[in-house]
């Protein structure tokens, strides 16, 4: 069995409002898939959707996790996200502070 990947990872996803982003963050942290979720209010999104260009007010959610939890976090976020087709992006961090890595490795 391979050792857990200790690198840091991030996930970004926009939500319709702060309340739904906060609810998702709480769920994912409680389930141990993320160690932290930062809700970023007041985003204005301009996007192409179903043949039109639209604008909407949204709240962003940035989640912090370990690289070995990234795929599970993304999959779970897609199931609890209120959008029918949520934008969910995840990436492994090239560099992280040692204290951050130790915190990410700790118990949920």
From TrEMBL:
Position of the signal peptide: none
Taxonomic superkingdom: Bacteria
Family annotation (Pfam families): CutA1
Similarity comment: Belongs to the CutA family.
UniProt protein name: Divalent-cation tolerance protein CutA
Source organism of the structure: Novosphingobium organovorum
